Every structure is written in structure tokens, then in C-alpha cells.
Amino acid sequence: TPPTFNSEHEYITLDAALNRSYFSRSLPPIPKNCPTPMGVAGKKVLPDTEAILEKLYKRVEFKADPLNHNIHLPTFAQHFTHMFFKTDHRHGGQFQWGGHGVDASHVYGKDKHVENLLRSFTGGRLKSQMIKGEEYPPYHKKEKS
Q1: Domain residue spans in the chain?
Q2: Which residues contact 37 (CB under 8 A, 6 or more apart)?
Q3: Which GO terms describe its cellular component (predicted)?
């Protein structure tokens, strides 16, 4: 994951480094006294969004990737992990806890406290309950936090 910036500072802050939202910055902001929107040496006007999208994505003919992938695969993979495994519902759907990869934290918990709530501490197993002779995870409300 590249370092992230926030809009208030031209350097990386702890808040920016720990920002797990979709909207973290990967480039520092343009200084407030800068005469152009793209830096001192930049153009006076930002390029048209539609023109950029057309230049990047519009193809006359299909060009196959040697591995049969495209640029959307890693983007979708990150979106998938955020949407299904690490959404921080206390702060809103656009925020995540944890890293950007797929790990087992959605099963074992995001920190030591939650991890310990889920463990039985017997034989390396997670806590479970028996219902009609079948083993299931415990109900969330029964676990004390």
C-alpha cells in the first residue's frame, strides 16, 4: 500500500497513514499558494475527465493480456476484500479496519481481544455450540465483550 496523505498537510500524518477509507490520498496536496491546479510547472486548467477516461479505457480492438487478466482484476480484488471482510460499520461503509489484503481476520477477529472471544483455548479450536446434534459457531450476543 502506498503512503497516504490528507488534504491538510503536505506530509504524511498518523491520521493519513491509518486512513482506511476509500478516499485516502496517495499524492501530497498542491500547496495553497500555488498558482495552478497541477503545481507550479503544471497546466493552468485540469484536463477533461471524459477525455481522460476515453483515452485510458476506449479501445478500437481487444488486446488480450498474456495471463488473461485486465487492470480491473486487482481493483476488484481490493474492493471485494473491503466490502465483504473489513467494513467498519461504526464509521460508515467507506471505512475499513485492518490491511488491504485477504487474511483470516474476518474469521479469527481483527484484534487480540476479539480473537480471544472466539477461541475455546482447547485443542486449537474456535468456540462452538451444538444445535440438534450439529456443531455451529456461537451466537454473537452470547459472547461477552
Answers
A1: 104-145
A2: 30, 43, 44, 45, 46
A3: cytoplasm; neuron projection
**Pair 145, 117: CB distance under 8 Å:** yes
Distance CA 137, CA 126 (A): 8
Among the residues of the chain, which ranges form H helices?
Answer: 14-17, 49-57, 72-85, 105-108, 112-118
pLDDT tens for residues 91-144?
776 677 766 666 667 677 777 888 888 888 888 888 999 999 999 988 766 555
Write down the pTM of the prediction: 0.36
Cell of 14: 498518523
Q: Cα–Cα distances in Å, from 11 out to 27, 41, 68, 110?
A: 10, 20, 39, 28
